[in-house]
Amino acid sequence: MFIENYIPFGYKNRISRETLEALTRQGDRTNRERMAEALYERHILIVNIDNAYFRPDGSPEDTLRAEAYYRRECTRTGSCKKRCDAIRECIRPKKQDELSKNQISLKQFGIG
Question: 74-87 burial, b if ≥16 CB within 10 A, otherwise e?
Fold first, then answer.
């Protein structure tokens, strides 16, 4: 199944998630995975904006919406990386305290 066959051209013809689920008989997560495949494997852009999907038709309006979608996804990528870094810090095994790891013992210093 190629998801792009279910996605109309043009913002004015956009399709809601619910309608797409009904047409494809697939859940939203599966449909989004198929959209990622369309983008990565077949270089087909499906824009997700205003709670609906469409394929840009080349009009100036659709081009502006595709660019807005691109900016939103780039921002999301940055915030996801920041969140992932913070989560990683929370679950990473704690190492020696930052202060104590840079200190030397009296014995190493030659005393004791």
Answer: eeeeeeeeeeeeee
